[in-house]
Amino acid sequence: VHAKLTDQGRLVIDLYHRQYFERHAGHSRREIDGIVVDTEGYMEGNRWHAVLRYADAHGARGGDHMEWQLFTPDEFAALAAACGFDLVLACAWADEAQAPAAEIARMQVVLRKA
Predict the structure, then answer these.
(1) Strand order in the sheet with 106-113
(2) Which of 72, 87, 83 is nearest to 17 (CA)?
(3) Is-contact 106 23, C-beta < 8 A?
(4) How far is CA 2 from the centre of its chain?
(5) Average pLDDT of each block of 10 consecutive residues along the chain (114 residues)?
């Protein structure tokens, strides 16, 4: 990405905040269009795992296991700097006045090619 940007080009990234997920591990259940989705979420190192199981009135219908590497704002800023970017802005809810926080699952980061 760095090589494709023009000088001073900007990159906007939407990320999950690691500290939010560290605090929200566990089981949840919801129903979507007649399908029950059981989710077990847990951290392993800096990676979030979501194990999903699906069922309908006829029984089990399979599942998925998804995994993401998660960062705190400072960790991502350090990684971005190592890749040749300057941090322009880190926010939550796409609101420049709202700082990322462990109570908010997602954050947005604006980087500029150094």
Answers:
(1) 10-16, 106-113, 85-91
(2) 72
(3) no
(4) 21
(5) 94 97 96 96 97 95 97 96 96 96 97 96
pLDDT of residue 58: 95
Say how far apart CA 22 and CA 16 lie, in whole Å. 11
Give buried/exposed letters for 17-47 (b at 16+ CB in 10 A, else e): bbbbbeeeeeeeeeeeeeeebebebeeeeee
Rounded CA gap, 50 and 40, in Å?
6
- What are 34's two structure tokens? 């007649």
pLDDT of 22: 95
